[in-house]
Amino acid sequence: MATKKVHLNIVFIGHVDHGKSTTVGRLLFDTKNIDEQAMKKLKDRAQELGKAGFEFAFVMDNLKEERERGVTIDLAHKKFETAKYYFTIIDAPGHRDFVKNMITGASQADAGVLVVAANDGVMAQTKEHVFLSRTLGVGQLIVAINKMDMKNYQEDAYNKVKADVTTLLKTVGYKVENILFVPVASFPGEGVAKKSDKMPWYKGPTLLDAMDLLKEPEKPTNLPLRLPIQDVYNITGIGVVPVGRVETGVMKIGDKVIVVPGREGKGITGEVKSIEMHHEQMDRAEPGDNIGFNVRGIGKKDIARGDVLGHVDHVPTVASEFTAQMVVLNHPTVVTVGYTPVFHIHTAQVACQIVAILKKLNPATGEVLAENPDFIKNGDAAIVKIKPMVPLVIEMQKEIPQLARFAIRDSGTTVAAGMCIDLVKKV
């Protein structure tokens, strides 16, 4: 039996058209995770659609509509092994309307690759994605400065973008000394999986090598089991198969589990019968594992996306109200008491009302600037009190941080992001 490699979820983020999908496609192709023949098919298909040069992107963009538009819509998951790790690559869309997928993507990721095009530099979404990654807890980043071919592989072009990205990363609180910057040209394949002779000035690792330099994430196996449900399938011969990622704790066959809030907000209990990941049966699942499982006693109509599974002796927390620390990123006017946008928390999307703005904070230092302000606006950080309109599972940052983070979306944009610092349990 080969030694089991550590599993990492890695998300590719960055502005639209900066080459995320192409980078991923090139990585998979150069490491023989896709064969020549499949690649040739994609190349022909790209030409047919008048999208010559998009064949690497097509590897990830497998939805028909995406191929025709040349845009990443949904999150694509791909298995990928390096010398050290076993990765699930999450290719997060850069397009504005798809930021909500980026949010579910980033909140699942152990690490991120931020792709920034050398010819464009830092753009609006580069900023938004970096901010969200930070707030949603993506601790480790690699910055791939792509499209170096558009800048004739010049070192000064790389240095300029590197300096701008460094400034951006510092403002949101990333420790830049731990971040690797890698110059690449993904379409021609320079610096991705193979060293490039076009950039002799660069002495660092390729993107592939940089991925192996990521630190192993600490698995929160000692925390209570929390598994947010992503989807629920009905599979012939097996029955109801919920799918999701274990955020914390360990789930084993035979475990007595409960899913809350469940259909009527009462919670549904059952016993774990089987667990599988990438079509292989497992007897246990740990944090980071994307699994499908079957529970005796749970029917298709009992649970839905956004519910959370835990052990019966440590039920996930359903809050009737919670206090959060949040930052306003992009609101057209101001945020006031009574505002009721959609909150994205783990896999749940729930309307919640802001019932009090307790304090306005300096986003860089956290010091209190005002008590009970009338409103907060872009760039402000604040402590707010929030009431979910329907039952919602959320945990406190100091107890189970993986289930404390949220993003707020309104009419197609990410308005704010934050984390739960206190809560009132629903009775």
Question: How does this structure look, described?
Answer:
The structure is a single chain. The chain has 427 residues and is of the alpha+beta class. It folds into three domains: 6-212, P-loop containing nucleotide triphosphate hydrolases (Rossmann fold, 3-Layer(aba) Sandwich), CATH 3.40.50.300; 227-311, Translation factors (Elongation Factor Tu (Ef-tu), domain 3); 318-425, Translation factors (Elongation Factor Tu (Ef-tu), domain 3). It has helices spanning 20-30, 36-48, 55-60, 64-69, 99-106, 124-135, 155-171, 207-212; strands at residues 6-13, 76-81, 85-91, 111-117, 140-146, 180-183, 227-235, 239-245, 251-252, 256-260, 268-277, 280-282, 284-285, 290-296, 308-311, 318-328, 335-336, 342-345, 348-361, 368-371, 375-376, 381-388, 392-393, 405-410, 413-425. It has a six-stranded mixed β-sheet with strand order 2-3-1-4-5-6, sandwiched between helices. The chain is globular, with a radius of gyration of 22 Å.
* Strand order in the sheet with the most strands: 2-3-1-4-5-6
Helix content: 10-25%
Q: State the shape.
A: globular
Distance between the termini: 49 Å
Q: How many strands, which pairing sense, and closed or not: the largest β-sheet?
A: 6 strands, mixed
The fraction of residues assigned to DSSP E strands is: 35-45%
Using only CA atoms, what is the Rg?
Answer: 22 Å
- The overall pLDDT, averaged over residues, is 84
CATH topology-level fold name of the largest domain = Rossmann fold
Total domain count: 3
CATH superfamily of the largest domain: P-loop containing nucleotide triphosphate hydrolases
Write down the oligomeric state: single chain
Q: Would you count the extended β strands for me?
A: 25
From the 3D coordinates, which CATH architecture of the largest domain would you assign? 3-Layer(aba) Sandwich
In CATH's first tier, which class of the largest domain applies? Alpha Beta
Total count of helical runs of at least 4 residues: 8
Uncertain segments: 63-67, 70-77, 93-102
Q: How does the helix and strand content classify structurally?
A: alpha+beta
